[in-house]
Amino acid sequence: MASKDNGRTSSRGFASMDPDRQREIASKGGESVPAGKRSFSKNPELAAEAGRKGGRSVPATSRSFSRDPSLAAAAGRKGGQASHGGRSADRTAE
Asked: How much of the chain, in percent, has pLDDT values that exceed 90?
């Protein structure tokens, strides 16, 4: 049952907040990270180190992509399809 709050079903939670209040809260998350560690796009070395650190946290026996390249290829294809909304290059726009 929708309430009188612009069709919202609840007046609780982040999604029901005013957009300006959401932005205010969301911006605080970025502020909590030191400036030198905020942007991988500006610092490829930082991104590479983060990737290495993440990889080291997974036991070698659980690194299935390193043991099975075909599994990695399948995951890449699935990710590509998902990021393009299931569209393929040969489909025409509707």
From this structure: 6
